[in-house]
Amino acid sequence: MIYILIIVTFILIVQSQNIIRYFRNEKRGWKFYKKNHKKIIYSEKIKGTWKHIEIDAEIDYGTFVPCFKNEENWTDYPDWAQNRNVIMDRIKEKFPLKD
Fold this sequence. Notes:
Layout: H1 2-28, E1 30-36, E2 39-46, E3 49-60, E4 63-66, H2 71-74, H3 84-94
Antiparallel strand pairs: 1-2, 2-3, 3-4
């Protein structure tokens, strides 16, 4: 009986974190996550739907580091993603650049 209670408690804790993350992202209107060791998916909610772009990344001495496009190549992204500095600042909060 105690094992079932522990398992149920664990499941509730994990699900509560997912619910909190969902509402936080909905309130902010943007989110990002690490897809793999070479990609970050950045998303913004535009007119009720999530739009995504992929940002390159790399592993540098064991640290995950985003690799942002220069200003000229950034124009390849859709119009909604043209605020380069804001997107870069949001991602650098979680994945700081190496010196």
